[in-house]
């Protein structure tokens, strides 16, 4: 039987305090307590987010995002992630239909132990790796006409594919893309830092 997924809820209002460089915005996805936040200093993004999970019937995290149309590629390096007491806390890059909880997504997530996973739509694991370690977990998530592909690197130059041409039909051409932090522990904020964040549309 299929795993139930959360029904999409209204898109939340972006909560950026103005400290994020354009075009990046941020918002909590789902019912998160306490509320998350995001800031940027010298190209380093600090993302604080709570949330029980991004899996099964749950879709709760803090999201730094921008609206996108069509194909492209997002790159970021995850440099740190706090240990919230859950080995399933996660931080990484995500392509999501909207900022509404329950909307379809595909993500690359790093956990505090260094395990990296590709997951999508609340019930599908598309690959994992234990070959990378903080502070040098570079992630690249690319969308083409063939689907979504996920890549990892320890130096931002040499990339290994973790998933190739995954079909996620619920993400429309007009969507969102960005970075996220989920503490995987309700009532607790997790903190992740990122640098080298860049999104480029397809040529």
**Count of helical segments?**
0
Radius of gyration: 15 Å
The proportion of residues in beta strands is: over 45%
End-to-end distance: 41 Å
* Element order: H for helix, E for strand: EEEEEEEEEEEEEEEE
Overall pLDDT confidence:
91
Secondary-structure class: mainly beta
Q: What is the oligomer described by this structure?
A: single chain
General description of the model:
By secondary structure, the protein is mostly beta strands. The protein is 0% helix and 52% strand. The chain is built from no helices and 16 strands. Strand 13 and strand 14 form a beta hairpin. It is globular, with a radius of gyration of 15 Å. The N and C termini lie far apart (41 Å). 43% of the residues are buried.
Write a concise keyword list for the protein shown above:
seven-stranded antiparallel β-sheet, mainly beta, single chain, 203 residues, 52% strand
Blueprint of the fold:
Layout: E1 25-29, E2 37-41, E3 44-49, E4 54-55, E5 58-59, E6 61-69, E7 72-81, E8 90-96, E9 105-110, E10 116-120, E11 124-129, E12 137-144, E13 147-153, E14 160-166, E15 174-182, E16 190-201
